[in-house]
Each structure stands twice: as structure tokens, then as C-alpha cells.
Design brief:
The structure is a homodimer. Chain A is mainly α. The first copy, chain A, is built from 9 helices and no strands. At the A-B interface, helix 6, helix 7, helix 8 and helix 9 of A face helix 6, helix 7, helix 8 and helix 9 of B.
């Protein structure tokens, strides 16, 4: 069923995908799909959650190298038009349905937990302050990609991955992501 | 007419705003609105363009202070739920309509031109490399806000403005936004 949706996304604009088309392609009854996922957006959000579980967590020995590896996999993922459409569909859905917004938050919370290990290792190696806010670092890694995807709507490339990794690395080393209470200002 | 739409955004969820409601509130015929803007999204995108023209361009004597001033005005703008809905509406629209995507690009291109002057001054003062890519710096300033708005969907606050300004400043000073051809890698 999710595979059928994936194929639909590969061949159609998001606006033209319907529960009936997914039902037709997958052989699952439309009523069954509606009962479980309610909307096309619901189906797509579920796909995103499943993808999120598969992101590899690098361990290259330095935070800088790890961050470059992470941003390169993000860039590869979004170099496919189908994956761009996937995230567009989820963000669009989240703006209209509280349920989809909730799933989006859950997906990214899970992603933060998975990537936090890179930062824990960097703290252990003494590369960054111990009170670095993992959530803010991960936001800094992802933000340039979503800006490019959703705002300027230009292609994702290796140059963007480099900027994203270097920017997050510099900020983390310089302590700009330290938790609020511990900064001297 | 745009004022009526603004009021609708202040009191309604985006999904419930229609051309007919805007017509009713503004006293402009629905047919006239449809002829000029085609959709609700079209009306809202036009509002965003008009807002963009009004962003103040600071001149505080240092790039760091200028960037903090810019991110503080962005944070103030998005602290209002109505303005969050405005940008959500535009991004959602851009994902579905090539026309809206085109306007979004035009709005941000204009914003880049306006903010570029801060970077030109910083280059003149010798704060950042002469070949700094203004577009990438401006993307770096905006990206954390749109990530917070559209992905994690949490409130915008002064802390985010601080992180955004410091991150863009550090990156610019360290040369990570230099145009590709001129970096030694």
C-alpha cells in the first residue's frame, strides 16, 4: 500500500493523488485505506516516519566528518523529485491538519534522538560544550534543506550539504547552541 | 481587499478562508477577486510581497549587530499567529501551484536584494570575505525560522533570533558562504 503511494508520488503531482488512485494501484480497498489513514496526507506522513528510521548514523571519528556524512545523505535523499514531493506533501498537510502536524513533530523528535548520539560522542571527545542543545544543532543541520525545498524551491546539491554541515559544526564548536541557562550573557 | 483577507487570517484557520468570505468582508465582488488573483493563495501571496517591501534595513555599524537586528524583526513578525498562517498559506500554495511558487521566489529574491546591502557594508569594513554569497547568507538567516514554523511548528522566540544571527555571522566571518569557485578545497 505504501509502495503504491510511493509509485504515485513518482509519477504524479501531489494534488492529483487520491485515495481512490492509491486503492486502484495497491489493490487495497479505498474504504480500508480511509479507515486507517483517513487522508492521502496521512498515508504520506506514515511513509515519512518509516523512511526516518532508516537514516544511517555515521561514526567517522570527528563531529565535522559526521556532520558532513549526515548532510550528504540528506542531500542525496532530496535530490530525488519524489522525495521532495513527499516532504512537501507532509508540510502542506501539517499546515491544515493538527493530526499531520503531530506526526511531523513525532517524526522529527525521533530523528533528533537518533542523531543526538553524534553530539554525545563529540562532547566525550571534547569537541563541543557538554551543554550543547542537540535539538538546536539538528534544526541547524536540517533548516537549510527545508528552506531550499520549500522557500526558494531550487535543487538540493552538494554545496548546500557542505554549507549546512560547516555551519552547524562551527556553531556547535563556538557554543552558540548551548542551553540558555548556561550561556554567559 | 487585502485588509479584509488579513482580518480573515486573524480570525480563521487558513483552510476555512474562501474567496466568497473575502468578498463578503471587503465588499469587492467575488468575480473581480477571482479574475485578478484566481485563488485565496494568490491573494495571500500578494500580501506577502507587500509586507516584504516594509522590512527595515538596519545600519548598526557592525555585521553582527545588523544581523541581530534583522533576526529580531523576523522573530517579531512571526510571533503573531496571523503572520505564521500567512507564510504557511504561501508555502502550501507554492507546493501546488507553479504560479504561487514563482511569486514566492520573486518575494525572496527581492528580500535578498534588500538585505545584500548589509553584506556589502561588512565587506567594505573588512569583516567578511569580498566574495561572500549574499543569497546563501540570507538563506542562513531565514532557514531556522521556516524550519521552526513549518517543520517543528513551535513558537518563534528571541532565542531562535539569537541562534540565527550568530550562526549566519560566524559562517560569514569564517568564509563558509564564499562563492564556490573561490574557496580553497
Amino acid at each position: 500500500m505504501l509502495k503504491a503511494t510511493w509509485e504515485e508520488l513518482g509519477s504524479q503531482e501531489f494534488a492529483s493523488i487520491t485515495i481512490d488512485r492509491i486503492a486502484q494501484r495497491s489493490g487495497v480497498h479505498a474504504a480500508t485505506i480511509r479507515r486507517r489513514w483517513r487522508t492521502v496526507e496521512g498515508v504520506i506522513t506514515d511513509m515519512l516516519s518509516q523512511h526516518s528510521e532508516k537514516i544511517p548514523i555515521p561514526d567517522a571519528g570527528s563531529l565535522r566528518a559526521d556532520l558532513h556524512a549526515v548532510t550528504q545523505s540528506i542531500a542525496e535523499f532530496y535530490s530525488l523529485a519524489r522525495n521532495r514531493r513527499l516532504v512537501e506533501a507532509v508540510v502542506t498537510s501539517a499546515a491544515r491538519e493538527p493530526g499531520a502536524a503531530e506526526v511531523l513533530r513525532a517524526v522529527f523528535k525521533n530523528r533528533i534522538q537518533r542523531v543526538s548520539v553524534l553530539l554525545e560522542r563529540a562532547v566525550e571527545r571534547g569537541e563541543i560544550p557538554a551543554d550543547t542543545d542537540a535539538e538546536e544543532v539538528i534544526a541547524a543541520i536540517g533548516a537549510p534543506f527545508y528552506y531550499r525545498l520549500l522557500i526558494t524551491r531550487r535543487p538540493i546539491d552538494a554545496e548546500l550539504a557542505r554549507i549546512s554541515a560547516e555551519s552547524a559544526y562551527l556553531g556547535a564548536v563556538e557554543g552558540i547552541f548551548r542551553t540558555k541557562g548556561s550561556r554567559p550573557d
